Amino acid sequence: MTRERKTVAIVDLIDTANAMLADSIDECRDGRIAIAVYLERILMDANAYRGFRFIDGTDETRRSYYVARELRS
């Protein structure tokens, strides 16, 4: 019996990570750093890294990663 391979779209990972990075409570700074590092590794390995921007008025752990147009299609 073979198992069906389960995958997730990179764009879904980016959207979820962006929401966590923007909306987590202030005490979760270390968690935001971990999410960013993990997401960047996935994006680099998939050759899908397109950079990020800092969310205005917040600390450097609050970021939003860009999604390549070809991934949104």
Q: What would you note in describing this structure?
A:
By secondary structure, this protein is mainly α. The protein has one domain (10-72). It has helices at residues 10-23, 29-45, 69-72; strands at 52-54, 63-65. A two-stranded antiparallel ribbon has the order 1-2. A hairpin with an 8-residue loop joins β1 (52-54) and β2. It starts with 9 loop residues before the first helix and ends with a helix. The relative contact order is 0.20. The mean pLDDT is 91.
Question: In short, what is this structure?
Answer:
This protein is mainly α. It contains 3 helices and 2 strands. The protein has helices at about 10-25, 30-45, 70, and strands at about 50-55, 65.
Sheet with most strands: 2 strands, antiparallel
Please, how many helices? 3
Spatial arrangement of strands, main beta sheet? 1-2
In total, the number of domains comes to 1
Round the mean pLDDT to the nearest integer and report it.
91
What's the N-to-C terminus distance? 34 Å
Fraction of residues in H or I helices: 40-55%
User: How much of the residues is beta strand, in percent?
Assistant: 5-15%
| Approximate shape | globular
Secondary structure tally: strands:
2
* Helix and strand pattern: HHEEH
The assigned structural class equals mainly alpha
Unreliable sequence segments? none
Radius of gyration: 14 Å
What structural keywords apply?
73 residues, 8% strand, mainly alpha, 2 strands, 3 helices, globular, two-stranded antiparallel sheet, single chain
